[in-house]
From TrEMBL:
Pfam families membership: Radical_SAM (PF04055)
The protein's name in its UniProt record: Pyruvate formate-lyase-activating enzyme
Lineage: Bacteria, Bacillati, Actinomycetota, Actinomycetes, Streptosporangiales
Radical SAM core domain ranges (all copies): 14-236
Cellular compartments annotated: Cytoplasm
Organism of provenance: Actinomadura luzonensis
Amino acid sequence: MDGVISSWDLSVGVDGPGTRFVVFTCGCPLRCRYCQNPETWRMRDGRTVRADEVMTEIGKYRRFIAVAGGGVTISGGEPLLQPRFTAELLSRCHAGGLHTALDTSGLLGVRATDEMLADTDLVLLDLKSWDPATYRRVTRGPVEPTLRFARRLAELGRPVWVRFVLVPGLTDAADNVAGLARFAAGLGNVERVDVLPFHRMATGKYERLGLTFPLAHVDPPGEALLERVRGQFREEGLAAV
Ligand code: SF4
């Protein structure tokens, strides 16, 4: 099976437990204003690879990531834009005893089969908001498919880490965070909430692509705001980091 990817890389701490081999697939239907990976938006900017080639590369790091309690994360872009390729990677890694994670916005959750999710040990779900207006302002897309996918993951009992990017003036409103925290806590399968501080490190990438980073004028959140938001998730009984 062929897929289109932007790159692969090793990461620690942010893409699932332990050291991760992360595959960045290409193509994403959303256009989040804070996106740090604009080079993954269009499939035609990516590289076509066979799943075998990716598995060979993963094999080179297998012992290293397994010893470190890590695994493989399929990220993007949006991996569910290429559901068959993503499913094959997850299935082969899972069958080989590696911990598997799927990093998704959930917009295309209907494309994830129950079999694919059974091969997924952890879903990193980018819950940018629960409120339709805020979600559309952040992503230009609708929130309902993501909320539906989150509920389905809960019904299936699949472990989820919620990722929430904190952007001053965009996602930091107390009622936005409170609503999201209530929603996430009500699911019952959210093991952890990563409150990710917005940053501007992708500005250069945007310039190289001939694009303008829409949030170039926004300052990253300070520690007090981060703690307030983490506190709001903790008040609902969630483990926020
Ligand atoms: S869903 Fe992810 S890859 Fe797609 S635009 Fe948003 S942040 Fe970027």
